[in-house]
Amino acid sequence: MSNFVAVYDACVLYPAPLRDLLMHLAVSDLFRARWTSRIHDEWIRNLLVNRPDLTRAQLERTRDLMDASVPDCLVSGYEGLEAALTLPDADDRHVLAAAILCQAGAIVTFNLKDFPAELLAPLGIIAQHPDEFVEHAFGINPAAVIAAVRDHRASLVRPPKSVEELLDCYLKQELVTTARLLRHYADYL
After folding, report:
1. Which of 114, 124, 141, 188 keeps 20 to 30 A from 96, CA to CA?
2. Residue-wise pLDDT tens digits, 121-178
3. pLDDT for residue 1 is more than 90
4. What angle do CA 14, 69, 134 make, to 5 degrees?
5. Nearest Cα to 101, choosing from 72, 130, 75, 68?
6. Which of 49, 51, 70 shows the shortest CA–CA distance to 7?
7. What's the CA dihedral at 51, 129, 96, 125 to 10 degrees?
8. What is the C-alpha to C-alpha distance for residues 88 and 114, in angstroms, rounded to an integer?
9. Alpha carbon distance 68, 89 (integer Å)
10. Rounded CA gap, 70 and 23, in Å?
């Protein structure tokens, strides 16, 4: 397993298709995925507001499956670091504190402006859009990413998705480069 650690921000765990892809990548051994109970609380809370058809019990089951699938994924004990951190949005300090504590190299987030490079660089951390994150993983080990995507597609049974439908779904998740790279390997997905 790689020693590279990536913290998933709540915003990348909120949309199920992206969360599922990131989880399939997390079990690929390309990197160590980490998050916190507070990150879970945030994506679950926001999803319940926007999706009244879902129940807390359903989302807590998803949370529990995520935690069971990735060894040592939960970061705890970071709370004491929060007060000393400065970010444009104080509500994001817990994510950075967790990243510092678990020695993450990246925070995977859509909210790049909330994690400015000039504040993260001295800590040895970068904020990466999920598309860039998957692209970098692909550059390290294309076969592992292709296998993760194949597994993701195979897990979609209600309803199943064709390769083209899955790539279109990734495009809707702002994974433009990811979809372009994977299109060349459609026969393996």
Report:
1. 141
2. 999 999 999 999 999 999 999 999 999 999 999 999 989 999 999 999 999 999 999 9
3. no
4. 55
5. 75
6. 70
7. 160
8. 5
9. 31
10. 8
**Closest listed residue to residue 20, CA positions, set 107, 116, 150, 143:** 150
Residue 1, SS3? coil
Other residues' Cβ atoms within 10 Å of the Cβ of residue 156? 14
C-alpha span between 25 and 21 (Å, rounded)? 6
Residue 145 CB: number of other CB atoms within 10 A?
25
- Using one digit for the tens of pLDDT, what is the confidence trace for 25-34? 999 989 999 9
- Integer Cα distance of 39 and 28 in angstroms: 22
Name the residue among 127, 60, 63, 114 with its Cα closest to residue 87: 114
Distance CA 177, CA 69 (A): 27
pTM above 0.70, yes or no: yes
Strand partners, 35: 74
Bond preceding residue 15 cis, omega within 30 of 0: no
Question: Exposure pattern of 69-108 as b/e (b: 16+ CB <10 Å)?
Answer: ebeebebeebeebbeebebeeeebbbbbbbbbbbebbbbb
Q: Write down how long the chain is.
A: 189
Measured at the CA of 150, the angle between CA 147 and CA 154, to 5 degrees, comes to 135
